From TrEMBL:
Protein name, UniProt field: UGSC-like domain-containing protein
Species whose genome carries this gene: Effusibacillus lacus
Lineage top rank: taxon: Bacteria
Domain UGSC-like: 4-93
Length: 93
């Protein structure tokens, strides 16, 4: 007897609420998350310069992932969420 495997199934998803959008970046703390690739720091540096020229950014806090192929670890994500009003993440390819 031949068994045939049919690789289909039910995908369960959970609806997530998007974060509320900021009215302005003035007075906000900006987080910059470098993914660790070659040019990410250059891109983030330019983003920082442009946003600071256009808005009254209160503070800039920077992080760098130790491994570009893995997500930021839970502690890093929680720290970023606790300290920042918004975050820019860069992929430096």
């Amino acid at each position: 007897m031949i068994e045939i495997y049919i690789p289909t199934g039910v995908v369960e998803t959970e609806l997530k609420q998007l974060s509320p959008r900021l009215d302005t970046l003035d007075g906000k703390v900006m987080g910059l998350l470098d993914n660790g690739k070659w040019n990410a720091n250059k891109l983030l540096s330019e983003v920082q310069t442009i946003l600071k020229e256009q808005f009254d950014i209160k503070e800039v806090i920077k992080w760098k992932k130790p491994n570009f192929s893995a997500p930021a670890n839970r502690d890093m994500r929680e720290e970023i969420a606790r300290k920042c009003d918004f975050v820019v993440s860069a992929i430096g390819d």
